[in-house]
Write a structure and sequence with these properties.
Elements: H1 3-27, E1 35-45, E2 48-55, E3 58-64, H2 66-71, E4 84-89, E5 97-103, E6 105-115, E7 118-126, E8 133-140, E9 153-159, E10 173-177, E11 179-184, H3 193-201
Parallel strand pairs: 8-10
Antiparallel strand pairs: 1-2, 1-4, 2-3, 4-5, 6-7, 6-9, 7-8, 9-11
């Protein structure tokens, strides 16, 4: 065999070994991830999927390339608003994803309220299937702040595996949440008859002025 051929095949073998090692590290690797959060926005840009995640009050944008979608750790590779994601980015970018795990997340929307007779924040929530009103005492994961003011409409996110109540089966239940975001201002908070009836039935009175 000529010397040039030997060099070529040696380099080819080194390349194959390096590529195999990279593939193994990508598919096996560590179970730890650098980021976690809930998906609050999904959009397509230049043939790639860009997601915005929320963790506490901080947001990040991540670009999902086709090869990330292919190996993404989820049953159907379909992303939805509210999904809980764990991910690690590449060494050379803060946006491109190296590996990613997705699990179902849960969203509830309602009005943020406070009461004179109880500590903490509550969510006035309407079940979209039954149109019945419910009241949840919000317990923030890791004691994070609740984003929003009295009467404002907010969205709360929680992930599978944390204590939760679904569907609501009684009133004044605690709900452990990951994070919240404000989705509508309330310069003049308005409550409908069902909400006021629920509050009165639980012997609560609205506490409109909250000290920051």
């Amino acid at each position: 065999m000529k010397k040039s051929s030997m060099i070529f095949y040696s380099l080819l073998a080194v390349f194959v070994l390096a590529f195999t090692a990279w593939g193994i590290s990508e598919t096996v690797g560590s179970e730890s991830y650098n980021y976690e959060g809930h998906i609050v926005d999904i959009r397509e840009e230049n043939g790639n999927t860009v997601i915005t995640t929320l963790n506490g009050d901080k947001r990040w944008n991540f670009t999902i390339k086709w090869y990330t979608k292919k190996k993404m750790e989820t049953s159907n590779n379909k992303l939805e608003i509210g999904d809980f994601v764990l991910l690690t980015t590449t060494h050379f970018s803060d946006t491109n994803i190296k590996k990613m795990r997705v699990s179902d997340g849960y969203i509830h929307e309602g009005k943020l309220v406070y009461f004179n007779e109880a500590d903490g924040a509550f969510l006035l929530y309407e079940n979209p299937e039954t149109q019945t009103k419910h009241l949840f005492h919000l317990v923030s994961f890791e004691n994070r702040a609740i984003n929003g003011h009295f009467g404002e409409k907010i969205r709360i996110y929680r992930s599978f595996g944390l204590p939760y109540i679904v569907p609501p089966i009684s009133e004044d239940l605690s709900l452990l949440i990951n994070c919240t975001e404000k989705i509508a201002n309330a310069n003049t908070p308005a409550f409908d008859e069902k909400e006021l009836t629920l509050i009165e039935s639980l012997h609560y009175t609205l506490k409109e002025h909250i000290e920051e």
